[in-house]
Give the backbone structure.
Amino acid sequence: MKNKSSLWKKIAALTVALTSVLGVFTGCAGNQSSPSAGSDAESAAKPAAGTVSITNVSYDPTRELYEQYNQIFQKYWEKEKGQKVEITQSHGGSGKQARSVLEGNEADVVTLALEGDVDELQKGGLIDDGWVDEFPKSSSPYTSTIVFLVRKGNPKNIKDWDDVVKPGVEVITPDPKSSGGARWNFLAAWAYADKKFGGDEAKDKEFLKSLYSNVTVLDSGARGATTTFVENGQGDVLLAWENEAYLSKKEHPDDFEIVTPSLSILAQPSVAVVDANVKKHGTEEVAKAYLEYLYSDEAQRLEAKNFYRPSDPDILKEFGGTFNLNVKLVNIDDDFGGWNKATEKFFADGAIFDQIYKK
Amino acid sequence: MALSQAAGHKGADSRLKKFFPVRKGTVIPGFGLSMGVTVTMLSLIVLIPLFSVFLTLSGSTFSDFWRVVTDKQTVATYRVSLSCAAIAAVVNAFFGILLAWILTRYQFPLRRVLDGLIELPFALPTSVAGISLTTMYSDKGWIGRWFDRIGVKISYTTTGIVIAMIFIGIPFVVRSIQPVLEKLNPQYEEAALTLGASRSRIFRKVVLPEILPAALTGFGLAFARGIGEYGSVVFIAGNIPYQTQITPLIIMNKLEQFNYFAATSIALVMVVFAFLLLFGINSLQARINKIARG
């Protein structure tokens, strides 16, 4: 009897404590929840008549985009084929997500931040060779770039990369070792330095060294870095995906400004059908259509509204008021010789990123 | 029922007895069965996954392993993880004794609530704890801003890491000590008092020897947990290489780069740390028990 009543009291106490802490947490951090895939993909194996399920494994900042895109795709598919589609979304750091697929998360499609992450799936035998050419524009339906998010009024007067490396400026950016987004940040800064110093790599390294010595928090993912900057008020400038920056500004219009540097990088997130899994699930057709429809006018406009640069040049022009189209964009293939080379040169263990932290 | 089972497992029993001598003629039946279940469960859940760590490494040379685990940046993370976990465990040991003492020796309003709260760090997803703590203790947060005024930064520094480790480690100490204190009859303390012992002497000579082994267990568990903690610490640590990077994070980073070999190598070092730590604590405890028994 005594035990029983004390157990109940404990449960009550725990509930009270939990709800209060959760209350604090949700109040501060906003909605962080997301449906995670994993075991959800199991149910996709046997689609009910008239319904088909697919799992889309994506990276952090695409949460809002795919929530909306899934709705328009569901409508489109039902109209075309008379079939209902259930779409399970999963978000996280791009590399982590790729690994989860590699280790058995039965994704039908992946929409990741880096070509290299999709390449890993190809090496693992899950995706057929030549996936880059399966969809238009190197399988990048939308692109983005790296911009600066600064506090209202731009108190540190940050205009371009030179201002970011000045002493006393606190920079927030995720760790390129673990975050796809952060690699774009790093490469954008490198490209700027490389142009400024006319290809003198020693000076480029110094530039990056002063940049990263200004970094006060090196989060493991892009969303984490945004939370650190926006919710926890750390740092003077966040190196962010353009879409993340606009999203933060939309949520807190009075707190932030976006600064587009003179030179940045064309970030091309990659999409691919996970061939091995769709064969197993019998979802080849719908998975392919799901990615193809990302290139439709309707979807391209939706992407633009979610602050991704649509790959269709005409629709991009429609949104010229939103995006700064004057920024000079370098790209990974022409300026860095592709992801494999870039990874090896900059981000592998002991490569340039590790060197700039070595004492 | 018990007889037939004992007969059926006789061969296994006698073999087991060589390794695990059982007192002859024990009245409790079912040793073979329960031992079998225990060993199976332990193997499936603890031992086999642990040994798979060794297996992953078996294809590579020791010099590769050594190069990975003695990399400067990695060594810096050992230092951060071990020192922060040690500080947190010491704080937890003191704070935990105090908490356990209050919870067992005094009656006060909301005592049960407090008692339930102790387990919260077990129940709460560690990432929730990490995000909440980071927000609270950042220089703009409710608590952190007061520290910021006296120039102390908590979130994104090693201090923050220690705070997160204290949070996740506290239940280990409290729950280890509490049952011992509950059993310890206050009459001993009263007797000591009537014999003229001072309060501090009563604590040192009567209470402390009783709770010390339990406190050590709690300390060891909290320490080990702190070394291995990832979820809550990554949020509050700044994750800056050589400064606030913890070892579990560098393991994750290696995984992100699909470098399974390096990740497993460092994981093995962590396993060894944890093992040595718990082994050391247990030996110390055995010695204390010996002394206590005289």
